[in-house]
Each structure stands twice: as C-alpha cells, then as structure tokens.
Specification:
Radius of gyration: 18 Å
Number of strands: 8
Order of helices and strands: HEEHEHEHHEEEE
CATH architecture: 2-Layer Sandwich
Strand content: 5-15%
CATH class: Alpha Beta
CATH superfamily: Ribonuclease H-like superfamily/Ribonuclease H
Structural class: alpha+beta
Oligomer: single chain
Largest sheet: 2 strands, antiparallel
CATH topology: Nucleotidyltransferase, domain 5
Distance between the termini: 53 Å
Strand order of the largest sheet: 1-2
Number of helices: 5
C-alpha cells in the first residue's frame, strides 16, 4: 500500500468529525490532531486538549460515528458539554464542519503526497494558519476567521507571499 493511501485515507475518516474542533462563530479551528489508529479514548483526549481549564462550550454538535464511544461521552460529560447529535446519515445538519472537511481535501490534500503522520500534521498546521489568516469566507463578508484590515490602493503595490508551501498565497499591499 502506498504512503498516500495509508495516510490520507485515515485522515479522511479523521476529518469526518474526529480530529478537529471548529468554532462556528468565525469558522475557527480551535484544535486538530491526526492519528492512524483513532479510538474513543484518543478522540476523548482531543476534546480535553481542545478545552483546557474552564473553556469548554455549552454545546457540541457531532455525528453518530462509532468512534464516539463510552470513554468519549464520559469525558465530554465530565467537562460539562451537552452533546447535540445529528440525525443518522445527515451531514447537512453540521454544514460548517462538512465545509471544512471539503475545503481541506480540495484545497490542500488533493494536491500533495503525504509522507507520514508527522508530515500530515505539519501540512495541516500550515493550512490552518492560512485558513485563519488569509482564506476568505462569503458568510464572513469576504473576511478571514481572524479579521484583517482593508488596505486602500494608496498603500502601494500588491504582493503575494506564498503560504502552505506555495499552494496558496496571501495578498497584501506593500507600504511604499
């Protein structure tokens, strides 16, 4: 089995709702991680790492995947999060997460060969930095999850520094 298949296929399952925590308000990825062998214990640990101390939200939307076993549910209940389950086979009930999964696949992973778990982690870390600072969203008024200033033409020439290893670019004006 090639490296691409052995690493991107588990990631595809991970991105289905197991390896990232997304804040709906500005489409921010609060936490992500990857593993070749997901388990309920690993998934529960990701929730704990995503919400240190008393930062847990009141609600969490998730699908009915079997990865969310008893250990996961106990951890979520222990930090005071109420789970909202989507209906079976209804991805449209969590559109922000589904959109993020599709964006990661189309804009990043479909263009790269992943060499291993650590390589995949670095790629996603770079992509999510781009996603937060540079990638625009129509629902956010063509802004990025981390708001950015609008530069008038008088500020100078437009430059395009590369991001995600040159796969994407950030467009800014260079002060004259």
């Amino acid at each position: 089995m090639s490296d691409r298949k052995s690493w991107t296929k588990p990631l595809a399952r991970q991105l289905g709702g197991r390896a990232f925590v997304l804040a709906h308000d500005r489409r921010r990825v609060l936490h992500f991680n990857v593993t070749e062998f997901p388990s309920a214990q690993w998934t529960g640990q990701q929730i704990i790492e995503a919400f240190p101390e008393d930062t847990a939200p009141t609600y969490m939307i998730r699908d009915r995947d079997g990865i969310y076993g008893d250990q996961f549910r106990r951890r979520v209940e222990g930090i005071g999060i109420d789970e909202v389950l989507t209906a079976p086979r209804s991805p449209w009930q969590n559109p922000y997460a589904e959109r993020l999964v599709g964006s990661v696949r189309r804009e990043c992973l479909d263009h790269l060969i992943v060499l291993g778990e650590q390589h995949l982690y670095r790629i996603l870390k770079s992509y999510f930095a781009y996603y937060h600072r540079s990638r625009t969203h129509l629902s956010l008024g063509k802004d990025a999850p981390e708001p950015r200033p609008v530069h008038p033409p008088s500020m100078g020439k437009v430059v395009a520094p590369p991001e995600v290893g040159g796969l994407h670019h950030r467009y800014e004006r260079l002060a004259a």
